[in-house]
Amino acid sequence: MFPQELLGLSLVPVLVVAGCPKEAQTLILKLYDLLGVVDTDELLMDVESVIERRMSKSVRVSVGPPLEKNKGRRHMEAVMFNIQQLVMVGRGTSKQEGHCEGWVKVNGTTLVGTAVEGSTGTLEEAVSSCERLRSLCAGVTSNGLHKPGMYLAVLKKGSHVLPSATSGSECWIHQCRAEEDVLMAAGSDRRMKRSTQRNCINKSEERVYNVVEWIPAISTLYNLGTAMYYASVNCSETAKERAILSAADIGTDVLMVATGGTVGVAGYALGAGMKTGVKAGVRYLLNSMKEEDDVLVNQYSWEEGVITIQ
């Protein structure tokens, strides 16, 4: 249920245009309960403003240089890390049990969170400190605040990845899966795996998606909301596909900030509260879309071949 605020804000205009006023009113009343009357009305007006801005002008779509495949994949892994952290907060749990499989290096980013005591050192030393904590450790980072070649390990609880303007900044994400995912993957019964994949196909949701994907602003909020939803029900591939579509509109850096900065995981970790974080996150996304007169789409491809944006 965690992404319901994002999905509600994106679907109200769709219901109004579709001639479903009663359903729209019901959804607005739900949003009043979740976000408050004043904030809900302001956010809905902001959404409407962005839609009108995009629809009333000829938006030029310029295709930027192709993202280097590994860089694009790794930055998306950072976004997915933040989304998983948000899902954990949304579930109201701090459980970190799981199985760790390896590391992903993400250049131009920093891993923010609580440092593991005594973990500062070379990359090898920081990695060793992190691996001793297993899935309790989010990864290691070098953000320019330390001497060149020095890293520190960061605890997973409350951590998040952010883009960094500091030259040479990088983080290494400790790839860990939740315990239930490990048990599922360990199963040798292929029929069980196929059944699990079928459970990730929601025909009703797909019909809604086929409508909203063409509406500026709405599609961005909706794709991010459904990315969080699918991540929460362990449909990781579908979650990635929706997150990539959001990134094609506003970029991975904006998504990292929206899902991991003070408006995302960090806001909740600092006690800002769920409602405050959601409202700030939506406003940040909408402001990012307002500032862009042109939509810059980077050529992007997903290695499995399902998603290709050019």
From TrEMBL:
The keyword Lipoprotein applies. One of its GO terms (biological process) is cholesterol metabolic process. Keywords: Lipoprotein, Signal. It comes from the Eukaryota. InterPro entries: APOF. Residues 1-18 form the signal peptide. GO terms for cellular component: extracellular space. This is Apolipoprotein F.
